[in-house]
Design goal:
- The structure holds two protein chains of two kinds.
- Helix content of chain A is 36%, strand content 21%.
- By secondary structure, chain A is an alpha/beta fold.
- Chain A folds into two domains: 155 residues, 3-Layer(aba) Sandwich (Rossmann fold), CATH 3.40.50.970; 129 residues, Rossmann fold, CATH 3.40.50.920.
- In chain A, helix 1 runs parallel beside helix 6.
- Chain B has a single domain, classed as Thiamin diphosphate (ThDP)-binding fold, Pyr/PP domains (Rossmann fold).
- Chain B is built from nine helices and five strands.
- Chain B has a five-stranded parallel beta sheet with strand order 1-2-3-5-4, sandwiched between helices.
- In chain B, helix 8 links the parallel strand 4 and strand 5.
- The radius of gyration of chain B is 17 Å and the shape is globular.
- Chain B starts with a helix and ends in a 6-residue tail after the last helix.
- In chain B, 49% of the residues are buried.
- The chains are: A alpha/beta, B alpha/beta.
- Chains A and B meet through helix 3 and helix 4 of A and helix 4 and helix 5 of B.
Chain lengths: 308, 271
């Protein structure tokens, strides 16, 4: 995913000299080509995320479009107040990019688990929050946040992201993408876990459960319209996120459903139940440990279907 | 208006504003009155009719709690009518206690310490990249230098030779609860900035000739960022507020207000 991001950003930056890329001393082997080709538009700030964000704001207020790059929680939580007070409040053209959403860096420990970033970023005023589901979405999302004025947050996976979408997609900030329609259940996924959601849908369909699938790549502004529409058409919505369910995708969908009159779909949430993961494991292992594997998602849907 | 009278007007305005609003930080405002009078009266290249004029020098008040003093100087030099200062702290207005960029002439909002210098660094860096000649001034408090983020920016500015960046420290030696030396010792303060790679000047922060001499220089001849350590007196200009920790948070009550205004009236510069 990060390679799709940097490839697209390099294209954008070649055409627009006002685009600046700052890194907090991360991106070994990833940012090299950008740095080599566009040295005037690249700065390694050092290990100093607060300073990186403040500098980005200062440059943005002078007309630059500044991308800040780091991994996990470093470009978000470490400098949250700079994002809130300096970037968002001044509607500065700062584009925060975090590589390693969810359990990408699972084995490294909780410092490297980005599992609350979406809910925290989504709570801020004047920000756009995007978590693309595959490499096609990453490419489009990169250009979309460049074209969206103000502060944006882009949360992506590591290397080796998959392609889920076949062919071109119609990527619009704030508009979910429907991959499949279904009569019984709707799976709504955000971020790189789309891969598992995609496979789970297939298993469910083979088992005779008609499941729809949506990639909710933007968490703010949120696509209320599509959630309301889905909730009127199916009996069960299952949100899927590699993230805490508190305030994230599950939270966002809950906020809408709770305000809808009956009859409407009920909700089940796949995601971290608001805990730290102290156990060691690679991404797929930890996904499985918290019910986000293909089997975990299928199980959640089947159990929910019998609950009525 | 000469800068001494501009400073006096700032002081009278902020004493009145904090009295009416029953708001804090009068000591911090009086402490920077001379610095901002010299900046807005003599040093900053500006255009009050076009606040966003691209050739302007940038000024960031990083110690946002003294925002009323900047509102006052902006009104005094013509960014907006003086009467608007009466909206300070009032319900529904944009004149909040900590400085707001919604007010004409204010570059950035602050209020949480340790943010302004990084933003100033970004502005200075952007100016260099675009071969622009304006300067970026950032005014910090001494207590603010407890924040680690200040030193992230200090390191970066020296490494990148941001000669168009001038940090001014309002070194009044008192922070919220106690003197700085009893809270977190900053000394040897000058040596710290020098060792981080900055040019350092120390001035009497209430002497306008000294301030003008050190603040108004040609950046094209420089290679390093500049730190002006301005030795100031918290509460300067009102005898009973000077160098008193109490006046970081206390607001002037009726009798104190009358006494303070009387003292200030007696200080009009006849030059």
């Amino acid at each position: 995913m990060r390679d799709s991001f940097i490839k697209e950003l390099t294209k954008i930056a070649k055409d627009d000299k006002n685009v600046i890329l700052l890194t907090g001393d991360l991106g070994f082997g990833v940012l090299n080509d950008f740095a080599k080709e566009l040295p005037e538009q690249f700065i390694n700030i050092g290990v100093a995320e607060q300073n990186m964000t403040g500098i980005a704001v200062g440059m943005a207020l002078e007309g630059k479009i500044v991308f800040t790059y780091s991994i996990c929680n470093f470009p978000t939580l470490r400098c949250l107040e700079q994002i809130r007070n300096d970037a968002c409040y001044h509607q500065a053209n700062v584009k925060i990019v975090a590589v390693g959403g969810g359990f990408c860096y699972g084995s490294l420990g909780i410092s490297h688990h980005a599992t609350e970033d979406l809910s925290i970023m989504r709570a801020l005023p004047d920000i756009t929050v995007v978590a693309p589901g595959d490499i096609v979405e990453v490419t489009d999302a990169t250009r979309a946040i460049y074209n969206t004025s103000g502060t944006c947050y882009l949360r992506i996976g590591r290397g080796g992201g998959k392609r889920i979408h076949e062919g071109d997609i119609n990527f619009k900030v704030g508009k979910a993408i429907q991959l499949f329609d279904g009569d019984d259940v709707a799976l709504i996924s955000t971020g790189g876990i789309l891969d598992n959601a995609f496979k789970a849908r297939k298993v469910l369909n083979e088992a005779g459960i008609s499941a729809g699938l949506y990639s909710m790549h933007t968490l703010r502004p949120f696509d209320r319209e599509i959630v309301e529409d889905i909730a009127k058409r199916v009996k069960l919505i299952v949100t899927i996120e590699e993230h805490t369910v508190i305030g994230g995708l599950g939270g966002a969908v809950s906020e809408i459903l709770a305000q809808m009159p009956q009859p409407r779909a009920r909700l089940e949430m796949v995601g971290l139940p608001g805990c730290f993961s102290s156990i060691v494991g690679d991404q797929e292992y930890l996904r499985g440990a918290y019910g986000m594997s293909v089997e975990g998602i299928v199980k959640k849907v089947k159990e929910a279907a019998f609950k009525e | 208006m000469n800068t001494y009278n501009l400073a006096l007007n700032i002081r009278k305005n902020v004493v009145r504003m904090t009295h009416l609003a029953e708001s804090s930080h009068i000591g911090s405002m009086l402490s920077i009155a001379d610095i901002i009078a010299v900046l807005y009266g003599e040093v900053l290249n500006k255009n009050v009719n076009e606040p966003q004029w691209s050739y302007r020098d940038r000024f960031i008040l990083s110690k946002g709690h003294a925002g009323a003093a900047v509102y006052a100087v902006l009104a005094e030099v013509g960014y907006f009518p003086i009467e608007k200062l009466n909206q300070y702290y009032s319900n529904g207005s944009i004149f909040c206690g900590h400085i707001s960029h919604k007010v004409s002439g204010v570059e950035v909002s602050s209020g949480s310490l340790g943010h302004g210098l990084s933003i100033g660094v970004g502005m200075a860096l952007a100016a260099k990249k675009d071969f622009k000649k304006h300067r970026v001034f950032v005014l910090l408090s001494d207590g603010e230098c407890d924040e680690g983020s200040v030193w992230e920016a200090v390191l970066f500015a020296a490494h990148h030779k941001l000669s168009n960046l001038i940090a001014i420290i309002d070194y009044n030696k008192i922070q919220s609860l106690a003197p700085t030396k009893d809270t977190i010792q900053l000394e040897p303060f000058r040596d710290k900035w020098i060792s981080f790679g900055w040019d350092v000047k120390e001035v009497d922060g209430h002497n306008h000739e000294e301030l003008i001499g050190e603040l108004d220089f040609d950046i094209s001849k420089k290679e390093k960022p500049t730190c002006i350590i301005a030795h100031t007196i918290k509460g300067k200009g009102v005898s009973f507020m000077e160098s008193k920790v109490l006046w970081h948070y206390r607001f002037p009550h009726e009798e104190e207000y009358v006494q303070a205004m009387k003292e200030l009236e007696e200080n009009v510069d006849e030059r």
